[in-house]
Amino acid sequence: MLNLLAFDLGGSSGKLLQGNFNGRDISLSLIEKFENRSVQINGALYWDIITVYQALLDGIKKAAASSNLHSLGIDSFSNDFALIDKNGELLSPVRCYRDDRTIRFADYIYNRVSPRRLYELTGNQNARFNTLMQIGAMQGTGQGWLLDHADRLLFVPNLLLFLLTGTIGAEYTIASVSQLFSFYDEDFSRELLDIFSLNKELFGPVLKSGSNAGTITKRLCAENSILPFSVVSVCEHDTASAYCASPFQGKNHIIISSGTWALMGCELDKPLINEEGYRYNFANEGGYPGHHRFLRNVMGSWIIQQIRSFNLEHGKNYSYAEMEKEAETSTPFAYFIDVDDDLFFSPGNMPGKIHDYCMAHYSSAPANTGALVRCVYESLAMKYRRNLELLRHITNKSFSFITIIGGGARDKLMCQFTADACNLPVAAGPEEATALGNIIVQLIAAGEITNLEEGRKIIADSFPVLRYEPNDNAVWEEQYRKYCELIPI
User: Fold this and answer.
1) Residues that are catalytic
2) Residue 303 phi/psi, 5° resolution?
């Protein structure tokens, strides 16, 4: 039995899971779970990276107390980073990608390089949360001296990896979405580094996905009474790990990695950087070799999470299952919102934001939690339909079904709405796709399996999927027409 740990840090929670592989099947057990929320200080948003690191260390100690560990992989959301000095000391806190400073300083970026040129150089979507946008905001606010004096910039998973092993670098999949990386050069773009006066050494070497990043340090082993084990530089961007766990072979299906964000796209052999991709703001993202991702970010469960948080703050402890049940009995197609509107990007009073949006477009608004959630679910399904049509158009590919992986796979109503809106069958699962993709790459690194295809077969044999068939096609087609009239591309 091979025991492997997967640390998965998301925008609302973090988890450490243990995967046990017996040569045929994978089983998962939860070691540690904690809430991960941004903290507002003096009008700015930060991650509590110290608490995140402590939770990771606590989980490792728990797991090590009951089994011999072979390796650990770390994945997280992308774009956010810390700066360290030459002694490995933190020079800066970790700002949250939802901080609105990037909006205020967008012109700082675009006056130096146009959005079109950025897309040509990186293939990344133009988005307010990208690493380049955060760096531009730092320079625009007079904090560029921090970048000039830092020894390294470490993306969140690479920071945690450094704290465990001392290894410096930027793993390929997390680097590839920074809007600083060139797929042509397979390295950080020299043109962009020059434009923004950034030292190439700041980012360290690009680490290959699946490479051995070292061993947990002797000091940590001694301090925590654990035996040394390897740390693998897995696909450290959580979406890249999640896509690795899609249980189906071939590239004829759409994958939606559904969590705080919903990342909807397909796998390609190589980047697709063209005028249509730029026009519709599709992202090229690095994946495990041969599994490049071409997708669009959709706001995902973030809006639902924020509705629940608002209710909790006001003494109403609705579970997600209870919210879904109320949505199921609410009036269908009463309201549509653009789930990707900037209004919904930042935390705080999400019901009020939906109310304001609907009042502006309908002169009325959802009156209760069930109506709010139904509005979000139906709007999200319509956004999926629109992105499906764009994917067909840009890639010139046909798709026979949709796979929903991640936490959204357990949301039965949303899965059914997706099948209905897109008029395609939906296969939902596995729920812990990110951790499983993380573990699959560790198994490849250990020589236990040969490639990603073998890993996907193991996942398909180990974890069931639920299937949803499209219903009421004529009704959804009519509502999609109304959605398109209200919310143009």
Assistant:
1) 238
2) -65, -40
